[in-house]
Write a structure and sequence with these properties.
Blueprint lengths: L32 E8 L7 E8 L6 H4 L19 H11 L3 E7 L3 E9 L2 H12 L2
Antiparallel strand pairs: 1-2, 2-4, 3-4
Amino acid sequence: MPPNGQGDPADGWNRKEPGPPPSRARITTPGPSTIRTELEQPARGEDLVRIAVEDDGRGIPEELLEHVFEPFFTTKGEGGGTGLGLPMVYGIAIQHGGTVSVTSRPGEGTRFEVRLPASDRARELEAAEATGC
């Protein structure tokens, strides 16, 4: 660790207080969800890291799907949400040259996919995982 107590961003973490790196993120959802990450290597173009989050919940009605990335759009009552979470995800993905998509079927669930340009580090991790190293 550098003498200033900050982790090297290249190591995937950056903190101001000394100590070990934080543990892996834990994502908790109110119901069953699946979160997958994958390195996509299309035949043409840039490698992408895909993060897919899906559930088997109520789904999002078709008439609301076009609004989910709009700032302050929410279907929750007062005190239930600000409507900023998905617009922030969308903005961050776009700023990093990526995309966000959503598919949903009422009664069957919803799937969000974030695709971001892959870094050399992502390729190294994918290769290490594939070889068991």
